[in-house]
Write a structure and sequence with these properties.
Low-confidence stretches: none
Oligomer: single chain
CATH class: Alpha Beta
Number of helices: 5
Structural class: alpha+beta
Mean pLDDT: 92
Strand order of the largest sheet: 2-1-3
């Protein structure tokens, strides 16, 4: 069974955020940036990949995403700051 990524994208530091899961982080981040899928992320301009966490099994990534979606906003911001204190857009690292 393949692994997967839990990720958070935002429009700006401390702005609107979205927690998602994917098996292909580079492709999914590009889709968010390109506005390929209409919905919440496109409506709020969520294009900045600020958090990514790898899981060896996709089922674990899916469960982590579900858990994180229920977390208070402050907890989500804390995991972002712990991994990415300067709020860099990690998309450039995926393709560089």
């Amino acid at each position: 069974m393949r692994g997967g990524w839990v990720y958070i994208i935002m429009n700006r530091p401390f702005g609107s955020l979205y927690v998602g899961v994917t098996s292909n982080l580079a492709r999914r981040a590009w889709e968010h940036r390109d506005g390929a899928n209409a919905g919440f992320t496109q409506r709020y301009g969520l294009t900045r990949l600020v958090f990514a966490e790898w899981h060896d099994e996709i089922i674990r990534a899916i469960q982590r995403e579900k858990n994180m979606k229920h977390w208070p906003r402050a907890w989500k911001l804390n995991v972002i700051v712990a991994q990415n204190p300067t709020w860099d857009d990690m998309f450039e690292r995926l393709n560089g």
